[in-house]
Amino acid sequence: MRFVMRHRVLSFGDDYWVKDEAGNRAFLVDGKVLAFRQAFELKGARGEVYAVARKKFFALRDTMVIKSGGAQVATVRKKMFSPIRHSFTIRLAGGEQWIARGDLIEKNYTLEGPQGVVASTSRKWFRIRDTYGVEIYHPDVPLAMAVVVCIDELVVDERKER
Predict the structure, then answer these.
(1) 134-159, pLDDT tens digit by residue?
(2) H or E segment at 146?
(3) Which of 69, 103, 104, 105 qualifies as a FRET site for 158, CA 20 to 30 Å off?
(4) Residue 157: burial class (beta carbons within 10 Å; 0-12, 13-18, 19+)
(5) Which residues have CB under 8 Å from 98's CB, separation 6+?
(6) DSSP character for 24?
(7) Nearest residue to 137 (alpha-carbon basis) of 158, 108, 115, 153
(8) What is the CB neighbour count within 10 angstroms for residue 73?
C-alpha cells in the first residue's frame, strides 16, 4: 500500500493526515501537545486508535515505545554507532527485529525484517517540503506506519537538538 505523508509545519499539536495514493485520508497522526514527553496517537480515518507511541524519558539512546490495545508491540531505538548513515532497530513484541537503513534525514530509507522489506520511504517524486511517500509491504499496515512515524519523530528531534 502506498501513502503520502506531509507534515504541517505550524499545526497545533503537530497533527497531520497521512493520505493513500488516491488522496483519501488514511491515518491521522495526533501529536500530544501537553504530554510530559513526546507522544502521538495513530488513528484511522474514523477516529479509531491503532497505536500510541511515546518517547522514553530515560534512555541511553533515543527510543520510542509503541503500544496497541494497551500492550507494547514495538520499540524503536536509534543505533548507538552507525559510521556511514543513521539507522534504527525496531524490536517487535514477538522478538522479531526490523532495521531502518538509508538516508533518514532526507526520508529515503528502507525498513527491513527477516522476511524482507517491510516498508520504504522516498521523497523522490515530491517537491513540496516535508512531503514523502511511504510504501508498506507488511500485512500489519498500522504497525509499520507507526514505526515510520516514530523514526521521523526521532530524526526531527535529533535535528532540533543540533
Answers:
(1) 999 999 999 999 999 999 888 876 65
(2) helix 141-161
(3) 69
(4) middle
(5) 89, 90, 92, 111, 112, 113, 118, 147
(6) -
(7) 115
(8) 19
Helix (H, G, I), strand (E, B) or coil at 28: strand
Q: What is the CA radius of gyration of the chain?
A: 15
CA 152/CA 90 separation, integer angstroms: 13
Which three three-digit cell numbers place residue 50? 491503532
For 29, the enclosing helix (H) or strand (E) is strand 25-31
pLDDT tens for 114-128 read 999 999 998 776 666
Alpha-carbon distances, residue 97 vs 85, 111, 113 (angstroms): 19, 10, 6
Q: Strands 108-113 and 63-68, how do they pair?
A: unpaired
Q: How far apart are CA 85 and CA 109, in angstroms?
A: 10
Q: What does pTM read for this prediction?
A: 0.87
What's the CA gap between 119 and 132, in Å, rounded?
13
The three cell numbers locating residue 51: 497505536
What distance in Å separates the CA atoms of residue 87 and residue 11, rounded to the nearest whole number? 28
Least confident segment among 30-39, 48-57, 65-74:
30-39
